């Protein structure tokens, strides 16, 4: 073996996440859920959602806003009443880096204007609106959500402490859309969970609803139906019990990224799409030439998880697409070096997937310590859907932690593009709740 390969192997081995370490992480997560629920110190906020499982018979037209990453969407969704959902119209918006660090109002104005274009094109003047705000927020009612710290690189000035549903309502008024009423605000994990339940129960009224909603995209988070305590938004991206598998790259990334601040979103910084490419970039720079010669690779966040997915998907003998990708970043490489990059990327993604499986086990054990019943996890997000074999990697850790028989009772349902459709379900459930 060449010295280069030894260095690669040693580096790759640092991303191992052995079952014993994962087990202690899962147990800590279960404990922190319990503490968060009763208001004791915990890195899990266990936020209330003020919604409940749908019947599957919800119907109607709902204007939706989905804001949760570099993009936002405004749309119009129609619920058929039998688990069916139709996206009638949709418009996507992208934000600049300056938008992410400015005042909140211009961002809400951009969103409101997109709502206006969709509504006018569809001839909608009066409608309920469901707002998916996929950042930490403490709901006080179904239509009031106080922003907590931001995530995923956003840092709007003065947003914290403000009601984001109120800010959207004000922007809608400024856009002349006062008859489009913000009827519900929710997290994306809750939308995913609700959409899966709506579809299942729409087909079969006796079907069990989804137990957990998981997002694994730019950010990560979990929502879970805790029975009497209701559906809760864990904000699991902030889970801090990761020390058993943390390595110096994680500590350095946590220290050096200023939004969200050091100490916050520790779990997210090891598993979600916003960070995995950055972990790879940092590790590559440590491998030395040729990576250090690339000025693109010297730039923080030059690699993202779409790059990681692309690297994993390259099945050619010479890793031709990896070559093209690296050349695009100004780095020429040998085939052996490319194999090293690929193995490193795979190790980073595998650790992320195993940690996600671990968080699921910790959450499900809170619901049912023995994992005796069948459970459904509704999942959405670009990393889960886009990284080749991610689900299989996550399932490996389920088997490691709870054994094959129990792991087989944990069913994952991939609900692609669930946010806007799930938002409509939440607004329809809110309408039923109000009329009761
Ligand atoms: C946010 C969560 C969100 C998750 C997935 C995290 O950064 O804090 O609220 O659910 O990303 O979008």
Quick structural overview:
The protein is an alpha/beta fold and 436 residues long. It has helices spanning 3-13, 19-37, 97-101, 104-121, 164-174, 188-203, 248-256, 268-271, 273-287, 305-313, 320-328, 335-367, 382-386, 390-408, 418-435; strands at 47-48, 59-67, 71-80, 85-94, 127-133, 137-141, 144-147, 180-186, 212-216, 220-225, 231-233, 375-380, 410-414.
Please describe what this structure looks like.
By secondary structure, this protein is of the alpha/beta class. Helix content is 46%, strand content 18%. The protein has 15 helices and 13 strands. The strands form 3 sheets. It has a 6-stranded mixed sheet with strand order 1-11-10-9-12-13, sandwiched between helices. A 5-stranded mixed sheet has the order 4-3-2-5-8, with helices on both faces. Strand 6 and strand 7 (144-147) form a beta hairpin. It is globular. The mean pLDDT is 95. It binds beta-D-glucopyranose. The site of beta-D-glucopyranose has 17 residues, from helix 6 and strand 10. The site of beta-D-glucopyranose (BGC) has 17 residues, from helix 6 and strand 10.
Keywords:
single chain, 436 residues, alpha/beta, six-stranded mixed beta sheet, five-stranded mixed beta sheet, 13 strands, binds beta-D-glucopyranose
Distance linking N and C termini: 71 Å
Sequence of secondary-structure elements: HHEEEEHHEEEHEHEEEHHHHHHEHHEH
Give, in spatial order, the strands making up the sheet with the most strands: 1-11-10-9-12-13
Helix count, per DSSP?
Answer: 15
Largest sheet: 6 strands, mixed
How much beta, percentage-wise? Answer: 15-25%
Radius of gyration: 22 Å
- The secondary-structure class comes to alpha/beta
List the ions, cofactors and other small molecules found in this model.
beta-D-glucopyranose
Residues in helices, as a percent range: 40-55%
Global geometry: globular
Q: Residue ranges: pLDDT <50 for 5 or more in a row?
A: none
Task: Give the oligomeric state.
Answer: single chain
């Amino acid at each position: 073996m060449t010295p280069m390969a030894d260095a690669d192997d040693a580096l790759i081995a640092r991303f191992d996440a052995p079952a014993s370490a994962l087990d202690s992480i899962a147990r800590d997560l279960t404990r922190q859920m319990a503490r968060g629920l009763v208001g004791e110190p915990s890195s899990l906020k266990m936020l209330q959602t003020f919604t409940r499982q749908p019947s599957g018979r919800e119907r109607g037209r709902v204007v939706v806003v989905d804001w949760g990453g570099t993009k936002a969407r405004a749309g119009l969704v129609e619920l058929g009443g039998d688990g069916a959902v139709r996206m009638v119209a949709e418009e996507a918006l992208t934000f600049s880096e300056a938008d992410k660090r400015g005042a909140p109002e211009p961002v809400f104005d951009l969103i409101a204007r997109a709502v206006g274009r969709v509504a006018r094109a569809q001839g909608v003047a009066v409608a309920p609106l469901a707002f998916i705000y996929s950042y930490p927020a403490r709901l006080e009612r179904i239509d009031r959500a106080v922003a907590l710290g931001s995530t995923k690189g956003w840092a709007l000035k003065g947003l914290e402490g403000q009601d984001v549903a109120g800010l959207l309502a004000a922007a809608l008024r400024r856009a002349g859309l006062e008859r489009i009423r913000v009827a519900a605000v929710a997290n994306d994990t809750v939308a995913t969970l609700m959409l899966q339940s709506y579809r299942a129960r729409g087909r079969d009224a006796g079907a069990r609803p989804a137990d957990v909603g998981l997002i694994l995209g730019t950010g990560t988070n979990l929502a879970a139906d805790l029975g009497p305590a209701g559906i809760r938004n864990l904000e699991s991206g902030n889970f801090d019990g990761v020390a058993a598998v943390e390595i110096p790259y994680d500590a350095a990334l946590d220290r050096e990224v200023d939004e969200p601040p050091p100490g916050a979103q520790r779990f997210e910084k090891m598993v979600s799409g916003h960070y995995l490419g950055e972990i790879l970039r940092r590790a590559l720079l440590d491998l030395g030439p040729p990576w250090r010669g690339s000025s693109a690779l010297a730039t923080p966040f030059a690699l993202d998880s779409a790059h990681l997915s692309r690297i994993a998907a390259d099945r050619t003998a010479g890793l031709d697409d990896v070559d093209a990708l690296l050349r695009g970043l100004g780095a020429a490489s040998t085939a052996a070096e490319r194999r090293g990059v690929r193995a490193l990327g795979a190790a980073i993604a595998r650790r992320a997937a195993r940690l996600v499986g671990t968080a699921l086990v910790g959450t499900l054990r809170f619901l049912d310590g023995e994992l005796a019943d069948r459970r459904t996890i509704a999942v959405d997000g670009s990393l889960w859907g886009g990284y080749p074999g991610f689900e299989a990697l996550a399932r490996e850790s389920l088997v490691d932690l709870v054994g094959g028989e129990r792991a087989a009772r944990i069913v994952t349902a991939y609900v692609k593009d669930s946010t806007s459709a799930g938002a409509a379900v939440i607004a329809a459930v809110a309408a039923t709740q109000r009329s009761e």
